[in-house]
Amino acid sequence: MAIVKVCGIETEYGIHSNNNHDNPVSLSSLLVNSYVTDLERAGWDFENENPANDARGFSATNGQPPQIETHLVNAVLTNGARYYVDHAHPELSTPECANPLELVLYDKAGEEILRRSVASANKHLPAESPITVIKNNSDGKGNSYGCHENYLMNREVPFSRIAKQVITHFVTRIIMVGAGKVGSELASNSRAIPFQLSQRGEFFEEEIGLETTLKRPIVNTRDEPHADPARFRRLHVIVGDANMSEVSTFLKVGTTALVLAMIEDDRLDNPDIILANPVHAIHQVSHDVGLNTALELINGTTATALQLQWQIFELASDYVDQNGLSVLGDEEVGKMMMKRWESTLELLESDPMLLSGQLDWVAKYRLLQAYMDRHNASWTDPRLRAIDIQYHDLNPEKSLYGRVGIERLVTDDEINKAVVTPPSDTRAFFRGMCLAKFSNEIASANWDSLVFDLKDGPLKRVPMMDPLKGTANHVDALIRSSKDATELLHSLEI
Questions:
Q1: What is the DSSP letter of 460?
Q2: pLDDT in tens, 286-320
Q3: pLDDT recorded at residue 64
Q4: Which of 24, 97, 247, 438 has the CA that lies 20 to 30 A from 485?
Q5: Same domain (yes/no): 451, 347
């Protein structure tokens, strides 16, 4: 039985300074610290994390829990998000969201948090070497950093079924949700590929696996549910691009959540949409600006990515007719997503450039084409790569994304509220509201628990093993009526 697809996004941001002596780790640490120093926040609790657990039923021998570096901040914010330094990048993980539109909002709130961090950090830096933060996936030198999605799933569904049936959607959704990219960073393609749909597509080398930075798999097998492991799994999706467009993010999360619900209910077992070679296919789709490359299927036939997306959409429509859209957390949001999915495929079929006001890759492609026409430039012109990067610049004075007129789904007022306030319909509400009210009595936090320090005894851990518990309906009145954490925990019988 399909369950509500509670979802989230983890974004690693590119970071840069004009001072060549500044390394990205120290810049990232300065950035995050500049934002959280004066905030009510708690440190991250690593106790129950194990990234070595594999959904195929074993634990990698070389997998280790994340290393806690005392000079790098790892904080939980009052909106329920996690903000920290991951290797050489600032990373923000949204709070858990109960529907795709809510996740669009909190993804945009994440961008605003990064912008505020930059403004704060730059006060401590020379004017000639400010920090620049880029929401993209590639440094142009062969290094890719991720934008990972997470979806709550029913533990009863065999992982082998998930991996087999979701992979075609992951490969072909690129035509809607790719962020676009000038050129290629693979030596074999560097001259042959002027532009591609996805920033991440060419970096995938395996169909299924545990790694996220080497030999990247299209389907990641990390098995950390961050919830009751007997009931839930978390599908950790590493194959997506970091989107600037709200429409692209909405489609990325909404279509994937529905496809995963169909897999849970065993409604996507169709051999006519199974790719023969998914790794080769994802490279083909990313390189296929014309959307006409035939992909080989295991049944011996071929189909384009657009044709396969139409087939998945038609199967999804049949599923929705029989089951509704409650799995997306909100029926009206679900209907909005289905209409957008269909209209996007229709426009991709007639003329993709009609989507320049909605999808990232189309907006960027049209922007680049206009520049080349105006300056009589070619795809090898190095200025095009600069334009590519500037599209993703979070600085509103420099961002080209902000100038191309892409459709909005959420308002600035909603974003500013989401920067400090958690979603009301997931456990993120309990986490964020407790942090806002009882910050001095919270020792640490993670996705599935809060650890309280009441100063007069042992630490007390409050488990939050169900992502749909701890909502405003469950605990808002209780939190508001508790004068301190001791009273709250007494009411919770902890």
A1: E
A2: 999 999 999 999 999 999 999 999 999 999 999 99
A3: 43
A4: 97
A5: no
Catalytic residue positions, numbered: 86
Task: Tell me: do 404 and 344 sit in the same domain.
Answer: yes
Domain annotation covers residue 178? yes
Please list, in sequence order, all residues whose beta carbon lies within 8 angstroms of the beta carbon of residue 39, skipping any fewer than 6 positions away: 75, 77, 78
Which token pair is 61?
A: 């021998």
Q: What pLDDT score does 22 carry?
A: 79
CB 12 within 8 A of CB 139: no
419 falls within a domain: no
Look at residue 211 in the predicted model and tell me its pLDDT: 80
Q: Indicate whether 478 and 344 sit together in one domain.
A: no
Residues contacting residue 472 through CB under 8 Å, at least 6 positions apart? 424, 425, 429
In angstroms, rounded to a whole number, what is the distance separating the alpha carbons of residues 272 and 270?
5
Taking the C-alpha atoms of residue 103 and residue 109, their distance in angstroms, rounded to an integer, is 10
CA distance 483 to 494: 16
CB atoms within 10 A of CB 219: 23
Per-residue pLDDT of 43-94, as tens digits, reads 666 666 666 677 776 665 444 434 444 445 789 999 999 999 988 899 999 9
Same domain, 103 and 227: yes
Is-contact 285 197, C-beta < 8 A? Answer: yes
Helical spans, DSSP H, in 45-86:
none
Provide DSSP, 424-459.
SSSTHHHHHHHHHHHGGGEEEEETTEEEE--SSSS-
Is 1 inside a domain boundary? no
Which residue ranges of the chain lie beneath pLDDT 50?
A: 40, 61-71
Q: Are 304 and 293 in contact (CB under 8 A)?
A: yes
Of 393, 414, 435, the residue that ends a domain is 414
Rg (CA), the chain: 22
CATH number (domain holding residue 97): 3.30.590
Q: What is the pTM of this model?
A: 0.94
Q: How far is the first Cα of the chain from the last one, in angstroms, to the nearest whole number?
A: 32
How many domains does the chain divide into? 2
